[in-house]
Design a protein that fits this description.
The protein has about 150 residues and is α+β, with helices and mostly antiparallel strands. The protein has helices at about 75-80, 90-105, and strands spanning about 25-30, 40-50, 55-65, 70, 110-115, 125-130. Strand 2 and strand 3 (about 55-65) form a beta hairpin. The protein is globular, with a radius of gyration of 16 Å. It comes from Lichenibacterium minor.
Length: about 150
């Protein structure tokens, strides 16, 4: 893996990675280190495959983090999230894996991820993971995804 300080995707034409293992997450320096703020990424059309049936699964993913020294470069995050399209894994694995990969790369002050999965077999599965308690004084808005209600 090349140096994560040098973004390799930004401003480049790149092929879509075939799997999360092939994808690359890049980071860039935070221009406001020491400032308490929340950065949010929302992926309302996340897809992966069921590892048993190979049928597509769909989720609304919300990633909140409090940067320290690094920000995730957004194009690399988009490519990384899209790389799950042909990846077979359970909802819990996809959601927690994304959170842990970002935690490892960015070393943020705090991070949480909400995976709001659409029903499979009639049951929606929502998955939530965070690195610990949010920093005191942080403005932490609701993730804004209503619980699944079905019809009616």
């Amino acid at each position: 893996m090349s140096d994560p300080l040098t973004p390799t995707l930004l401003g480049q034409t790149v092929a879509q990675p075939g799997s999360p293992e092939e994808a690359r997450l890049d980071r860039v320096p935070n221009p406001h280190p020491g400032t308490l703020y929340l950065a949010r990424f929302t992926a309302p059309e996340f897809t992966s495959l069921c590892p048993v049936t190979a049928q597509p699964d769909f989720a609304h993913i919300v990633i909140d983090y409090v940067p320290d020294g690094w920000l995730v470069e957004s194009k690399s995050l988009k490519m990384y999230l899209t790389s799950f399209r042909n990846h077979g894994a359970f909802h819990e694995d996809c959601t927690v894996r994304i959170g842990k990969e970002l935690q490892s790369l960015l070393l943020p002050r705090w991070l949480r991820i909400g995976g709001y999965w659409y029903p499979r077999g009639g049951i929606p599965i929502d998955v939530f993971w965070q690195t610990g308690a949010p920093p005191e004084g942080l403005w932490l808005p609701d993730q804004g995804v209503p619980p699944y209600r079905g019809r009616g």
